[in-house]
């Protein structure tokens, strides 16, 4: 009995505890929100209101659907330029050369106009030629021959000595060398030209200018951007191409230069262009790497047929140092011609003589400025005239 009483008391206590816990919670829920919090309440649904029926809309009742069309991108094709003819370019650009050679020409003329050409005068002439980068060996030969002529012929006037000096300088440039670019198509395929040289010598620019020279002379051209080392080079070349309506074959950045060159010639054959001009990269830090790369480009291109012209681009402002670098290229590929760039920016135009003598390769073109048509076929006599400047 006692147990029953105890159990009943326990039950009562438990029930009272449970009620005490639940009631305050329920109260708390009923309290209005405190502070600044706003509660958005769902509007009460009027259960008595009839349901809203949305009648189906027939097509013809719909307002016309306005579809805003994105304007088709209009391809603005650059106007195709007509490059200047190449004949007589060197004469036209002569001022560029003589401006930078002023000291050279004037220095020589002032010595030559002396009444008597004594030992000092001949030494001065020698020094002027050496300063103009003609090279020691070539200078000695030129001065020796001139002295002999003056002595034997008894030359008197400055004008006569100047004319004879011009002849000697021209002779030193071996005017009989073949300077024609081998770019004509043959055997049902385009002529293929490869352009090599150290970075910054002006390779890409010169490729573009050469394309214009060829187009001015009536040929069709395709560019191969095998300088995949410098990403901007391909872009640069493509821009040159667009300006004259020439296609450019390029690969992804860092692509194998040999495969880009191969594809360029393949494309050139397909579309039947006259000449394919291939730009290459010229890292000289590692001679073996350079040899491998250029050698491979040449070998792979030659799967289509021989490379007809390999031009070495040399920066005239690098003087005799540039010559040493140039030699590396002649060891790697069979260079058939030299393009001397930036002759407008140096007083050392005599480098042309040194280049030909040292490399035994004809200078075929000279760069005389940054303009698109500032590249001229090299003509020894006209060049020497510009070098000496003004008539005596
Ligand atoms: N004044 C002058 N500048 C030139 C001449 N030829 C090229 N240049 C400039 O030389 C600079 C280098 O030319 P690039 O064609 O980019 O040289 P690159 O050899 O292709 O260089 P990489 O692509 O780095 O191998 C450019 O600013 C050209 O405009 C020239 O005959 N005269």
UniProtKB/TrEMBL annotation:
<comment type="function">
    <text>Involved in targeting and insertion of nascent membrane proteins into the cytoplasmic membrane. Acts as a receptor for the complex formed by the signal recognition particle (SRP) and the ribosome-nascent chain (RNC).</text>
</comment>
<dbReference type="InterPro" id="IPR003593">
    <property type="entry name" value="AAA+_ATPase"/>
</dbReference>
<keyword id="KW-0342">GTP-binding</keyword>
<keyword id="KW-0547">Nucleotide-binding</keyword>
<dbReference type="InterPro" id="IPR013822">
    <property type="entry name" value="Signal_recog_particl_SRP54_hlx"/>
</dbReference>
<dbReference type="GO" id="GO:0005886">
    <property type="term" value="C:plasma membrane"/>
</dbReference>
<dbReference type="Pfam" id="PF02881">
    <property type="entry name" value="SRP54_N"/>
</dbReference>
<dbReference type="GO" id="GO:0005525">
    <property type="term" value="F:GTP binding"/>
</dbReference>
<dbReference type="GO" id="GO:0003924">
    <property type="term" value="F:GTPase activity"/>
</dbReference>
<feature type="binding site">
    <location>
        <begin position="341"/>
        <end position="344"/>
    </location>
    <ligand>
        <name>GTP</name>
    </ligand>
</feature>
<protein>
    <recommendedName>
        <fullName>Signal recognition particle receptor FtsY</fullName>
        <ecNumber>3.6.5.4</ecNumber>
    </recommendedName>
</protein>
<keyword id="KW-0378">Hydrolase</keyword>
<dbReference type="Pfam" id="PF00448">
    <property type="entry name" value="SRP54"/>
</dbReference>
<keyword id="KW-0472">Membrane</keyword>
<dbReference type="GO" id="GO:0006614">
    <property type="term" value="P:SRP-dependent cotranslational protein targeting to membrane"/>
</dbReference>
<dbReference type="GO" id="GO:0005047">
    <property type="term" value="F:signal recognition particle binding"/>
</dbReference>
<dbReference type="InterPro" id="IPR042101">
    <property type="entry name" value="SRP54_N_sf"/>
</dbReference>
<comment type="subunit">
    <text>Part of the signal recognition particle protein translocation system, which is composed of SRP and FtsY.</text>
</comment>
<feature type="domain" description="SRP54-type proteins GTP-binding">
    <location>
        <begin position="362"/>
        <end position="375"/>
    </location>
</feature>
<keyword id="KW-0963">Cytoplasm</keyword>
<keyword id="KW-0675">Receptor</keyword>
<feature type="binding site">
    <location>
        <begin position="279"/>
        <end position="283"/>
    </location>
    <ligand>
        <name>GTP</name>
    </ligand>
</feature>
<dbReference type="InterPro" id="IPR036225">
    <property type="entry name" value="SRP/SRP_N"/>
</dbReference>
<dbReference type="InterPro" id="IPR004390">
    <property type="entry name" value="SR_rcpt_FtsY"/>
</dbReference>
<dbReference type="InterPro" id="IPR027417">
    <property type="entry name" value="P-loop_NTPase"/>
</dbReference>
<comment type="similarity">
    <text>Belongs to the GTP-binding SRP family. FtsY subfamily.</text>
</comment>
<dbReference type="GO" id="GO:0005737">
    <property type="term" value="C:cytoplasm"/>
</dbReference>
<keyword id="KW-1003">Cell membrane</keyword>
<feature type="binding site">
    <location>
        <begin position="197"/>
        <end position="204"/>
    </location>
    <ligand>
        <name>GTP</name>
    </ligand>
</feature>
<dbReference type="InterPro" id="IPR000897">
    <property type="entry name" value="SRP54_GTPase_dom"/>
</dbReference>
């Amino acid at each position: 009995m006692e147990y029953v009483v105890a159990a009943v008391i326990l039950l009562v206590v438990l029930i009272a505890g449970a009620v005490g816990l639940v009631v305050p919670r329920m109260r708390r829920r009923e309290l209005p929100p405190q502070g600044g919090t706003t509660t958005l309440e769902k509007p009460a649904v009027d259960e008595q209101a009839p349901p809203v029926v949305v009648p189906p809309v027939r097509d013809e009742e719909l307002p016309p659907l306005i579809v805003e069309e994105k304007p088709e991108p209009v391809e603005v094709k650059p106007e195709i330029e007509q490059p200047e003819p190449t004949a007589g370019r060197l004469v036209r650009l002569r001022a560029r050369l003589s401006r930078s050679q002023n000291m050279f020409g004037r220095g020589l003329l002032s010595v030559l106009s002396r009444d008597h050409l004594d030992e000092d005068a001949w030494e001065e002439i020698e020094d002027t030629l050496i300063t103009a980068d003609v090279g020691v060996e070539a200078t000695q030969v030129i001065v020796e021959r001139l002295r002999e002529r003056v002595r034997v012929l008894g030359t008197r006037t400055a004008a006569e000595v100047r004319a004879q000096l011009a002849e000697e300088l021209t002779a030193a440039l071996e005017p009989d060398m073949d300077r024609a670019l081998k770019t004509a198509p043959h055997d049902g395929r385009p002529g293929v030209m490869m352009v090599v040289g150290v970075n910054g010598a002006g390779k890409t620019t010169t490729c573009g200018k050469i394309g214009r020279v060829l187009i001015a002379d009536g040929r069709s051209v395709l560019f191969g951007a095998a300088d995949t080392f410098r990403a901007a080079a391909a872009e640069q070349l493509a821009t040159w191409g667009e300006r004259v309506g020439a296609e450019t074959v390029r690969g992804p950045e860092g692509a194998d230069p040999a495969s880009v060159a191969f594809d360029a010639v393949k494309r050139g054959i397909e579309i039947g262009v006259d000449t394919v001009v291939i730009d290459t990269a010229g890292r000289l830090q590692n001679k073996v790497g350079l040899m491998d790369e250029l050698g491979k480009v040449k070998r792979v291109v030659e799967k289509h047929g021989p490379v007809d012209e390999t031009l070495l681009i040399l920066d005239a402002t690098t003087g005799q140092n540039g010559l040493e670098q140039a030699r590396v290229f002649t060891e790697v590929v069979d260079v058939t011609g030299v393009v001397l760039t930036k002759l407008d920016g140096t007083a050392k135009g005599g480098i042309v003589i040194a280049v030909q003598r040292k490399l035994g390769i004809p200078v075929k073109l000279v760069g005389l400025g940054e303009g698109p048509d500032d590249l001229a076929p090299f003509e020894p006599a006209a060049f020497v005239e510009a070098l000496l400047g003004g008539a005596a």
